[in-house]
Each structure stands twice: as C-alpha cells, then as structure tokens.
Amino acid sequence: MSLSVQATADHIYATGLRNQWHPVVPSSFVAPGAMRKVTALGEQWLLFRRSDGTLSMLADRCPHRGAPLSLGKHLGDRVACWYHGVEVETDGTVSSVPGLPGCNLEGKKLVTSLPVREVGGAVLAYFGDEQHPEPAELTLPEPLTDPEVDAILCYAEWNGPWRFAVENLLDPMHGAFLHHESHTMYDGDTTAKFRIRETDRGYFFEKTDQRGVNFDWVELCRTGVDWVDLTIPYPPSAGPGGPFGIVGMVCPVDENRTGVFFWRYRRVQGWQRDSWRFLYRTLIEERHWQVLEQDRVMLEAMPADADQRENLYQHDLGVVRLRRMYRAAAEAQASSV
Question: What positions does the domain Rieske occupy (predicted)?
C-alpha cells in the first residue's frame, strides 16, 4: 500500500467510513423554515428545512468564493450567501447570481447535496465518494419501524473518537463493572465467556453462560447504516413492555468528537405505551442518563492512542472483530479513491 493510500485509509478510519449512511443530528435540531450548520465525517454541512418540513443537506460552502452558506439567508426554497448574495437551491444548483445576472454559474449544480432520510427523530445522510455517489440500500432498524414498538431517542456529543463509542457497545462486560451501581446492571456474574455468532447482517457478541440477567449480548448490524441492538432485563416495577431495548448509532463528527444516538424502546401499545412513556420520563430517563454519563466520562478520559497500547483478552473478541472489519473497509475505500 502506497503512503498516499495509507494516509487516506487512516483519514477514513479516523473520520468515518464512506459509502454508507450515518446519523447526523436529531431532527428537532432543524425547525421548519430554519437551517443549521453541522459537522459530520470531518466536514462542514448545512441542514436546510423548508417551511413544509422537507429537509436538505448541502456542503457548507458557497461555490463562488467558499464562504459558509450557513451564514446566509433562508429564502424558503434556497439559501442566499451572505458574502455576495449567490443563491443556491436545495439540490446544490446555483439559481441566481445577483451581482451578474446570467453569468455562467447559474443553472449549474456546484454544491454537494447529500441524500437524507429521517427516522425515529433523527436525520440520516448518505456519505458517498466519487465512485459511489448513489445512496446505498438502507434497511432501517426494526425497532424504529415496527408500529408495535415505542422508541425514544436520546442524543449526546462526546469528546473522543467515534470508534471508541462503537467499541464500548461491543464490550458487554464493561456493564458489570462501570455500570455496576445501575438499577438494571447490578446483577449477574463478573466473570464470563463470550463467543461471536455470525449473521447475514453482522454478528452477535454474547455471553455463553448467562442470558437475560445483565448486558449479556449485543448485535452489530450493517444494513446500509451501522447500528447495534441489545436488551437489558427490566424489573416489573418498570411497567409493561418486557425487556428494555436499545438501538445505538454513532456519528463521526470529526477525529475527536462523536455524536451518540440511543433509542430506548419497548414493545408496547395503547395504554401500555402511555404508561411506559410516563415512567420513562418521570423516573427511568434520569437513571439512564447517569449510565450514559459513566460511559462518557470513561471514554473521554482515554487517550487518543488508547487502542495502540493494549493487552487484550477473550472478552475483547467483539472489539477485535470490529476493528478488523472497519480497518479493511477504510483501506478498500482508500484504494478506490
């Protein structure tokens, strides 16, 4: 591998894999008739929502002089750059150059526009390279599309590499230690053996000698967007709905910052859904933010080269498998650039 290809692979590995969908921010971050600057995969973007709710995502760069479009004016169906008034439509086409009407910039698609989807209260965008501009097929997590499941999105931003956040989810054993004081993770053994079980969309990393007690398994799913699924047993005092499920995704904001998306879900309908939401908002949510805060404190305290100075053991098989998969994908994408 040449030095340039290796450098590109390192950059992709650090800032996020291309040619797939990633969550960006919660949908609520962009109100109807508003726009918002965001950073994702180490690049600056503009989320632009029309008054009818239609959302677009543009590179935050005017094609004229490179000024940030996010500093411009929302004109309903387009944005006008503050610097010289150049107007850009939501598909990236320059519609008007007020300083020189009829100039050759008009009518040209000069600003990158990404495909976007909104699901479960979050904005997902497809980040392709020049060889893969068309969006990859996207299969959304079942708990976010099943009408019999109620999911609540929790979002936070952490100062640390995006990979650390995914690796944390592929490490079920940390629940028995880091989260030992949690109301749902206090039980179960602090010793375990694990196995990897392959699926047609990813793999399970699970305990072989304990189930339904603690954070006992996690499934990594690669369905156009990378996500994890896991469940944690709930006591009857937590209301109807059975086990408490979590769908997790991460946004590589840049090399040192990560957006984490956690949908907490239960299989409930009707009055049970109302009961679950009431209990969650009034009692359970605060406890779960405490668990997330424990993860944040630990991951932000780890040095950026933590994964270069390790001594791993059997419990880390899920993390090792993840790293090999992501590194291979980054190298393959770099080789095609």
Answer: 21-125
